[in-house]
Write a structure and sequence with these properties.
This protein has 13 helices and 5 strands. Helix 3 (58-75) packs across helix 12, helix 9 packs antiparallel against helix 12 and helix 10 (247-260) packs across helix 12. It is mainly alpha-helical and 339 residues long. The relative contact order is 0.14. The chain binds adenosine-5'-tetraphosphate (AQP). Adenosine-5'-tetraphosphate is lined by residues 14-15, 21, 23-24, 27-28, 151-152, 154-155, 190-192, 201-205.
């Protein structure tokens, strides 16, 4: 942290756009649980306002928001310790998002690769919200004066933009008000790759279901997908350097290391020299052992949606208590009036 006046506080979010994957779990959720256990104050948001930057069926959005909350809790997030809520219940996100639309520059947003990937050739037809997504993300984080943001590697550029917005706001208004955040992009699985193509990120929108492990997959499906995962004909190396230029092998070993909570080198010191025919069954056993209890608990929690709604509403009240004075002060700095 470059500015010690801000107490450590973690913020992160996930879109309730359905289809949670192993990438979301290893790149985000698992880290959230570790950070909670480290005792740092943490705020986690179901970013439904981000999800609607592409069309969402309203009933699906409601269900996916609850399912995402169930995913957080089933993965080990304790709503008494960490704040869990959905973004649309805290209107300050949209209010600060607008302010940051006036701080961020067109050129900054034009450089965002996620927008380019998601818009593809359809640039003229996608929503304005998809383009300004990163300014709302900056608002999500800075609304809480969060200092640490655990995310997968795909969010790195958005976090750099968040830093730029904080720096420009502080500079333009001659204040030291918003913290310059630290991305937390660490561990062996910061970018979990497709099981079918080691050069592509594992993602819910990949047309091939075999490319990803969904958090809702049962043990048989997990086993089938990992057995079919693309590999190469060589045996596994004994050191991480031996995985260079072997993207599919690197991906599977990294997934194993993240699930086993160890390093890639430690895994390779055990499995170096083995063929995939021996390694894959080990990976299947580990994945089923770690993931099945989460999907089972998610299903159990989803039987009582009223309880999930209660947890989210309580989280929103706690989140607003932090956000509201920060937005008050932002408005005051800018000469705006908040009644
Ligand atoms: N493959 C991944 N590896 C590591 N981390 C990942 N994350 C997502 N995919 C991977 C991390 O999960 C968090 C939530 O991200 P999101 O809400 O933006 O989810 P997403 O990026 O919409 O998920 P997808 O599957 O990638 O969706 P599509 O297909 O729509 O693009 C973030 O911390 C993200 O880094």
């Amino acid at each position: 942290m470059s500015d010690s006046k801000f107490a450590p506080r973690v913020f992160s979010g996930i879109q309730p756009s359905g289809g949670l994957t192993l990438g979301n779990y290893l790149g985000a959720l698992k880290k959230f649980v570790t950070m909670q256990n480290d005792g740092i104050e943490a705020i986690y948001c179901m970013v439904d306002l981000h999800a609607i930057t592409v069309w969402q069926d309203p009933e699906d959005l409601r269900k996916n928001t609850r399912e995402l909350a169930a995913f957080f809790i089933a993965s080990g997030l304790d709503p008494q310790k960490s704040i869990l809520f959905n973004q649309s219940q805290v209107p300050e996100h949209a209010q600060l998002g607008w302010v940051f639309n006036t701080v961020a520059r067109m050129g900054w947003l034009n450089r965002m690769t996620q927008f380019k990937d998601k818009a593809g050739k359809n640039k003229e037809k996608v929503s304005v919200g998809l383009f300004s997504y990163p300014t709302l993300m900056a608002a999500d984080i800075l609304l809480y004066h969060a200092t640490h943001v655990p995310v997968g590697d795909d969010q790195k550029q958005h976090l750099e933009l968040t830093r730029d917005i904080a720096i420009k706001f502080n500079h333009d208004y001659k204040v030291d008000f918003f913290p310059v955040i630290e991305p937390v992009i660490e561990g062996p699985a910061t970018r979990v790759m497709s099981l079918r193509d080691g050069s592509k990120k594992m993602s819910k929108s990949d047309p091939s279901d075999l490319s990803r492990i969904n958090m809702s997959d049962d043990a048989d499906m997990i086993a089938k997908k990992l057995r079919k995962a693309k590999t190469d004909p060589d045996a596994l190396p004994s050191e991480a350097a031996g995985l260079n230029d072997r993207p599919e092998a690197k991906n599977l070993v990294s997934i194993y290391a993240a699930l086993a909570e160890t390093s890639v080198d430690a895994v390779l010191s055990d499995v170096g020299g083995k063929q995939f025919s021996e390694f894959k069954p080990m990976l299947v056993d580990l994945a089923v052992e770690k993931l099945s209890p989460i999907s089972g608990e998610m299903s159990r929690l989803m039987e009582d949606t009223a309880e999930i709604d209660r947890v989210l509403a309580q989280g929103a009240t706690r989140a607003r208590a932090i956000a509201s004075p920060i937005l008050d002060k932002t408005y005051d700095i800018m000469g705006l009036v908040r009644s």
